Task: inverse folding
């Protein structure tokens, strides 16, 4: 399953709070429509029924679309230190 770094978890929680996302909401990662191998990230009020909920150390603010889950299972979501503003990167799990 996708793992989430502490930095990414904090960034997701901060973004969700700033956007007024409900407590059960968070960041959803889904396959990009029409662009295989690319992913879309969006703040959502709640996970979809078939989403995987990444529950690491009690953090349940990252949801993975069922179709995207196999491609993400060996990756880690982290923040991108070079991004201007909030940015995320997917890297291989250590």
Result:
């Amino acid at each position: 399953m996708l793992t989430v770094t502490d930095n990414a978890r904090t960034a997701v929680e901060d973004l969700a709070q700033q956007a007024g996302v409900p407590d059960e909401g968070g960041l959803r990662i889904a396959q990009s429509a029409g662009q295989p191998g690319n992913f879309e990230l969006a703040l959502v009020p709640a996970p979809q029924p078939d989403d995987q909920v990444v529950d690491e150390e009690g953090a349940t603010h990252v949801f993975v679309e069922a179709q995207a889950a196999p491609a993400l299972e060996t990756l880690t979501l982290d923040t991108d230190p070079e991004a201007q503003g909030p940015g995320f990167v997917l890297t291989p799990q250590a």
